Every structure is written in C-alpha cells, then in structure tokens.
Amino acid sequence: LVSRKKHPDNTVVDLKGVMMGDGAQRLVMGPCAVESYEQVLTVAKALKERGIRLLRGGAFKPRTSPYDFQGLGVEGLEILKRVADELDMVVISEIVNPADIEKAIDYVDVIQIGARNMQNFELLKAAGNVNKPVLLKRGLSATISEFIHAAEYVVASGNNDLMLCERGIRTYETATRNTLDISAVPILKQETHLPVLVDVTHSTGRRDLLLPTAKAALAIGADAVMAEVHPDPAVALSDSAQQMDIPQFNKFVDELLASGLYKG
Ligand code: PEP
Ligand code: MN
Fold it and tell me: A GO molecular function for this record (predicted)?
C-alpha cells in the first residue's frame, strides 16, 4: 500500500491547513520535552513569528535510562493543546503506549511513533486504526526495508495519512550521536509515495551540525526538517546538548532562507 509502484502520486497530508508532501518544504520545531506551559508558549511564539505552525514536543519521553525525565504524560499533552489552541499551531507528539492512542487524539494533531517503537506492531496497528495523521520515525537499527514494512502496518490498518522520518541510525561512528542516512530520503521517496522528513537534532546530537544537515536534507528533497528548540537548553530536562535557543533558532531560519533552499 505504501509502494510508489502501486500509487505513483505523492500522498499529501493535510495538517490543519499545512500540507506535507505537496512540494513545499517545511520546518517542524519545538522542544524535546514539554516541561511547562511557559516553556512551550515561549517556543511556539518564536516559531509563529517565523511563520512556522508545526510544533513538536514530547509528553511521553522514551529515555535510555529509567532515572532520566520521563515526560509530563497527559499533563504535557494538555499543555501542547492549550498552546496550539491559543496560537493556531499544529501539535506533533509521541505516543508510546497503544492504550494511549485513543486518548491522545483529543490532544494532538499528529501521532508520532518514535524510533524505539518503530517495530512495536501493536502500536503501529493502534495508530493505523484512528483518523489522525501519523509520523513514523526510523528505528535506531532499522534497514530501509524494515522501515517501509513498519509503515505498511499503519496504512494496512486503514490510516493513509502517514509521514516518514529519517532520524539517524546506529553505526560504528561516534562523532555524531547517530549517523544521518541522507540517502534514505531519495530512496524512501522513490520506493514510497509518503512525505519524508529529516530530524537533524536526534541524528546528529550536535548543535553545530543542525544547519549543514538541514541544508543537506532540503537539497536532497526532504518534505520537512525537524529540529529542537528550547528557551534555555542548558537547563533542558532532555537533549540539552543539541537543542537551539531562540536566537540560535532565528539564525537557523535566517541562514536556511539565505541559502535559497528554504522558501519560508
Ligand atoms: C523525539 O523526536 O522526541 C525522539 C525521541 O526521537 P527518536 O524517537 O527519533 O529518538
Ligand atoms: Mn530530543
């Protein structure tokens, strides 16, 4: 069902009026984790000023260590919804438990399935059973074929509003947190008809690489770039090393516009 051979036309996903897959290239930005109403509001206002309506933020955080901040859960979803209602933003947030999918559709505009859950088939089926767009991230060690099969689970369950996200894979290289597989973008676009995003924050794990990798993603034809923004990354409860602060975010957008790759 996701194969380009069967469906030559691009899937265009309508995110409350922001189209994904129509040829325009978008930015999806926001904090790693929802920490407070003020934190999300500050970031969302900065995004809005630059014409960005796609707001990401994690309420359920799948952390490597059980002792790290696990997210605010439903309270985090409530904060995202409140900010989105106030500023007309589109909320993208990860859901980790199949049992939470039904509840989440009242709060989020896009259900994100994270890298660690790419092959959580019950979660994929649950997300496929609801009428809400899904953003599926590539697994940490998933081949492109496995990624496409995971996507097939969502669409086979009845949900056609699916987007894919390359977010780096595990290799022997340690200079970056993961290795951004940039060639996955044209491969996924050739093999499937789905919108393809590139997450430059989690793939690199390095603030200094966000801009060059975002340019590469736009140049190679990604439908959107995802990156994290926090009012004060030094005190962020997760991903402190790679989130941009608001001035850095503005510079990031300025430089993408100046490159001619991002049209705004
Ligand atoms: C995220 O986008 O918040 C996230 C945890 O990313 P990933 O699942 O790609 O690690
Ligand atoms: Mn993060």
Answer: chorismate mutase activity
